[in-house]
């Protein structure tokens, strides 16, 4: 790593930044770095304001969706300020990817973690001490060691400590799904280094989590930058479980064939079984969960990052900080724990801005299982209450008959209109008034003594004279046969929804018997209505038309050049021992395939082609374009 660091000219210092448009005769230092180092023609959203604020010495709390360009918000200030920027990152994979990309762009960057042997770690420490590094990535555990703090003291005393960037800052939240207790120690940074600016960044945080980040990291007075949480390139689709594996396979084959994706499962066992089953179906899939050895996890993660079209089947142990931009889909075979978790996990798709899919299969049993896990956990009652509330909000999302994105963004306090890019917008569901049927079901639960599961209750409602019905004498109660107009499948759907909306609860101590809750009373008294969606089959031909949409290459432009560029990129990345997207992202190759540049100057205008990459790869790319005719 360190021996591969390129030589860099002295960077331009910018004590006072000025805003100027890209292409201006006298662009600001920040714009010059953006264009010539990273290859982008213009800042997006609030990137410029964040860069200028932090580069000038201000603290910042940044909430920006995955793929929104958070890294540039501290990388550019790091190159503008004197000294070394310390980036706190929770995962080894994230550090390695970020450093590989920076080195490819010509930046003196390194990481310090347990993957390095002693000799390489000492080399990084020497470079840090000598002040030759521009960015150094470390885990919070290492940063807080006396040895490392002594090194930081040395940098501070010699005026060579540029800034602190705390990535994945939501890890400090004890209510969150990615809590890392080591992050709590980072509150000492402003006490020990009060004059050094700090920037904390996260892609997911509701209002409560934002306040917790500000409080625990001592960033109460930091300027806050909250970008839109909308990811318009992601299509959200949620289906009722009906042989979920087969549903998943159909989704992958019809909409994302030969594409990289992540499939999330709740348990380690389900991860193993699902990965094996997908392999049997001819798909390139690997498992990943915390129960595997560290070596196996590292091997599978490396393959996922560096191979095209690989599917990772994982628990939530996989994904945070994964910097792979061309993940075309994220699928859930189990209900996530919260909307925050769902948003962050689905946000790992389409980081390159090209169309991507977020697909989930769910059932009422998922809700029952999640509630049971909450109830049986050793957490305090306050934590359980918040966990239940967050689960309820997620159930509201999956049950929604209106725009999914509106529900998702509303959770983060953002108003929006119908998106036109979710299942409910594209194929509005039909609903039916199930109020009377729901009352019949609730009455049956009551008349049978609240002692039976859905299967027996359906037999009673449909008037089935089973042995169990006769043995219990339920053919003589008033609800026997009053629901014969609905088939078994419709009744099961209704009972699932009654459970999901908490009109009835599952008694795990009594063989999953159903019992009424207080919420059932208004419905039984005729004071509330109950509506359900009518599921209908989606057009297979429509799905197929969408499956290759992410290429977005106009008619008349052959995809063969794009394919040849990807093949060249794969070989180049393998030779340099870096992930393919570190060389160039799909979005950059797509633009090359469309514009077909003939000169280095034309190639240099394409987004993602910085000076260093133009120098290293320009001739090879132009040759491929010329050969394509």
UniProtKB/TrEMBL annotation:
EC number: 5.6.2.4
Residue span, Helicase ATP-binding domain: 51-223
Highest taxon listed in the record's lineage: Bacteria
Domain HRDC, chain residue ranges per copy: 555-629
Residue ranges of domain Helicase C-terminal in the record: 244-394
Any GO MF annotation of the entry: helicase activity
InterPro entries: DEAD/DEAH_box_helicase_dom (IPR011545), DNA_helicase_ATP-dep_RecQ (IPR004589), DNA_helicase_ATP-dep_RecQ_bac (IPR006293), Helicase_ATP-bd (IPR014001), Helicase_C-like (IPR001650), HRDC-like_sf (IPR010997), HRDC_dom (IPR002121), HRDC_dom_sf (IPR044876)
Catalytic activity: Couples ATP hydrolysis with the unwinding of duplex DNA by translocating in the 3'-5' direction
Keywords for this protein: ATP-binding, DNA damage, DNA recombination, DNA repair, DNA-binding, Helicase, Hydrolase, Isomerase, Metal-binding, Nucleotide-binding, Zinc
Principal EC category: isomerase
UniProt keyword Methyltransferase present: no
Family statement drawn from the similarity comment of this UniProt entry: Belongs to the helicase family. RecQ subfamily.
Entry protein name: DNA helicase RecQ
Gene for this chain: recQ
